[in-house]
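As described in the Methods, two query proteins were run sequentially through the folding procedure within a single session, without resetting any intermediate state between them. The first query and its resulting structure tokens are shown here.
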Amino acid sequence: MSYISITGLKMKSPFHAPRFWWHAIRSMVQAKRDPNCQLAIARQINGIAHTLTVWNDRKEMLAFLRSGPHREAMRIFPKIGTGYGFGIEADIVPPWDEAHRLWLEHGETIKRV
């Protein structure tokens, strides 16, 4: 059983694009280098930047969330974007259409951790 995190983030303004992508790219690199992350992928759907990450468990995902570049991104996020995330425990990684459906149906407003 793995912990799957699905997020969707949107910039408040196109003027925030350089800052948004700076943090998004650094956070994705951090996730891909994390030994507890089994998969880290991103996709744009309807103008929203989505991520799908797979972790050994929720505790390891939370440790990532609170560290390094991702922590910096979360600190500035409320100023430049809006969005929410959703996490599930599953044996199989959902395809993008299913992940997006789950995000739309069950996502919660992202809070600073």
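Immediately afterward, the second query was submitted; its sequence and tokens are:
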Amino acid sequence: MSSGWRSRLVWAAMIAVLAVLALRTQDHFAAYFASVGKLEVRVIPGQDALYMRWRGKIEAPMASKIAEAFESHKGEVRTIILSLSSPGGSLDQGASVVRLLDSIRRTHTLVTSVEEGATCASMCVPIYLQGERRIAAADAEFMFHEVNFRDFFSKEKDRSVPDSAVGTETDRFFSKYFAGAGVSPVWIGKVRAGIDKGNEVWKTGRELLDENSGVVQQLI
């Protein structure tokens, strides 16, 4: 085979590899932007309330978007209604949102809601628990699980973390976000046992109310 043909084959192979990489990059970008949350904002006439609805993962820029909407309308309303529909997400971003909502509660009444057909899973639940009034549709779904340690690059569960560390962090998580919000200690104990070893516990809004969990206070 001549050197010319070899060069053409090498270049063809490189082009093919670059094309595959481009497609994979495109897929990753598409997946990323599909997961970025969206905040809908509107003032409810006659109710002195600002309605905000977050749909998507608990990821940046959730806290900054809520803060921006609140700052724009805080002088017009007394009540903030935050409706959630989220599969969960970042512990750090969730903590930022919790701190923001704690600040909002100092000057305004905060109502949190999970509407009909919506899901509030994982880190979404501690955000929901910030509401002074917590309402949900009967069929709204809530999901609880252990704290996840994930590899930064693969985003998969880091299996090098011992079960004892997972248990300790999960206990701290429930103590910080659930017990502090007035959730029943008996109910926490049952759910805590149910999520052991990576299991998930799913509950509807009606189940949470019927179980006197303290998570949902009223059905929509």
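Helices lie at 3-35, 62-73, 91-104, 124-128, 163-177, 185-194, 205-210. We note this only descriptively and draw no conclusion about the first query from it.
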